[in-house]
Amino acid sequence: MGHRAKNKQPAPQPLDVKQSAISSKKLGKRKAESLNDNSNSRPVKRPKDQSESKQKGKKKKKVLVDSDAEGSADGWEDVADNVELKIQAKSLFSTNDDEELDELGMDEFSDDELRGPAQAFDFGSDAEDDEPEVIIGKSKKSKQSERPAKIIPTASDNSDSSDQSDEEERITMANMAARSKALDEQAAAEDALDVEEMQQAAFNEEDDDDDLDMDEDEEETDGEPFRLPTREENEAESKAGGPDVHVVQRRMRECVRVLGRFKKLAEKSRSRSEYISQLLSDISSYYGYNDFLAEKLFQLFPVAEAIEFFEANEVPRPVTIRTNTLRTRRRDLAQALINRGVNLEPIGKWTNVGLQVFESSVPIGATPEYLAGHYMLQAASSFLPVIALSPQPNERVLDMASAPGGKTTHIAALLQNTGIVFANDANKARTKSLSANVHRLGCKNVVVCSYDGREFPKVIGGFDRVLLDAPCSGTGVISKDSSVKVNKSERDFTLLAHLQKQLILCAIDSVSPDSKTGGYVVYSTCSVTVDENESVVDYALRKRPNVKLVDTGLEFGREGYTKYRGKIFNSSLSLTRRFYPHVHNMDGFYVAKFKVEKRGKISKASDSTAEVGLIGIEEEGEQIAPEKEKIAFDDDEDRPYIEESKRRRMKAKGLKPPPRTTVKVAA
Ligand SMILES: C[S@@+](CC[C@H](N)C(=O)[O-])C[C@H]1O[C@@H](n2cnc3c(N)ncnc32)[C@H](O)[C@@H]1O
């Protein structure tokens, strides 16, 4: 557990002060006593890009749900410790009959190197096997900072035809207008109070040395100038039981500030890697990550943004539900739930089936509407791959890793119960909650099966569309499952990427290139790492010359990386989409969409790539666990990457790397 969790302390002041309306300098200060405050009154950073979606400011209690709706990727099983909770867990399915998965080999594209023994990966939680559970936090003073921010609304979602296009209008204008108006007035008054409070607090704390100052124009911090501790000081600090939480907080802010203007602010005798090294060590201890994962996630973002990401992982995401259009319409569902005392709103224009729940006086996972299958408790991010898949009536669809069925039931609804959905999951125990959800939501076009996904298309192929919502590390859902912070090692990422590469080729091979209406594969993960996303997709492009990336149809989300830390990916990777908690107020997620064309002659080049999918290969060329087979490895091609990787690691440790002997790889 990190300092931050241990002390249940408020979030560090936002580091990106430009987003704040009030003087960032003043807002950056904190009272030391607040560090031990359990009152859940920490300021929650508003996600970026939210100007349009600014919270209407309704008085909203937090609603937390422990449901059978979703797995670790999509569920609500992890209950935040900062909300008053009551949990009455009841196991629906207690059996644990995971099957051993056999080794397979069936690929006509000669990717035999991927055919290691099948691993029964199950990175989903068992929590979804519990009775749906809703925990309602009691309302405290409805400070703006305590309300769950809205999910980023963007352009409309055209992915399904329905008679609900004007629903949102009707809900907000007709059903909710009066209520909204009163709440808005109240919220406006509260907002004014909040601003006043913050200004007052900032004024009172002007001399506090916990100053966060990222302002370009500011050159000096108040109080003592920051000095990076020496190695000896750090050793003494850890001998004395680790740093004081104030010290860590201040040091993190200062390191970020210095790294932002290194030439100007750094001590002349200290290198950039020393500052980074200190910051990483503080991030690990403050947020409670293992060193490996802290660095891996840190590398994804510019320095200040990385802190925003780590901060966002400490805050629960909004509770959202998906209307099951096989049973009801969104406006009818909204009205029924409003009548029960649920405060909700449409999520945003990008989905016409989503509702965000702000507060509820009834358990959201046990209302009559829930039990009758009128909705699914589902994270907003998990709508995205199905919107991208865009299944059309009468199609044959494979959901290759489907339990507990959030996306399967969404697909079935978009098919309007026509066609057929094969809902597969390798974990047999998890298919029970999958079947339960399929029945509850009235999906009549779903066949549930339990194969290792790598057995497709041998089991059955010729699909119009395939969704591979792949087993992953869950680095996008740390706010729900904080165990990810400590239980993921380098080897886990190697093994996962290997499995994902195997599965994605099987997903592609399961699609019929002759499909009249489809011919698409959507690959998604609830992870933000490049190893599990762009690297896997790029691998598939290289291994299957008959596929190309196409637009996901999702009108928000950041572009996928086309290059990352020395790796250069196919330029079409920019068509893939990344979603982040600190940007979109959603779980971290990744979506890629492929079009599968007829198979032509396979070019030799596509199969002779240096990156091979054997257990034991790590992206940058290190052999982690050479367990099974000899690895086809292009030494010459990979030498610069290996060397660059070594140099980076040395630099991160504050060591001076030797001069380059090979050509520098692209950054
Ligand atoms: C991210 S979860 C899927 C969530 C699901 N798509 C949903 O929306 O509810 C990943 C799933 O992959 C399954 N899985 C793991 N290894 C697999 C394999 N080799 N073949 C098929 N499924 C696998 C896990 O049991 C887990 O249920």
Automatic annotation (TrEMBL):
Gene Ontology molecular function terms on file: RNA binding; rRNA (cytosine-C5-)-methyltransferase activity
Active site (record annotation): C526 (nucleophile)
UniProt biased composition (Acidic residues): 67-80, 187-197, 204-223
Major localization listed first in the record, in broad terms: nucleus
Domain SAM-dependent MTase RsmB/NOP-type, first and last residues per copy: 309-597
Similarity remark: Belongs to the class I-like SAM-binding methyltransferase superfamily. RsmB/NOP family.
UniProt-recorded name of the protein: Nucleolar protein 2
The organism of origin for this protein: Lentinula edodes (Shiitake mushroom)
Lineage, uppermost ranks: Eukaryota, Fungi, Dikarya, Basidiomycota, Agaricomycotina
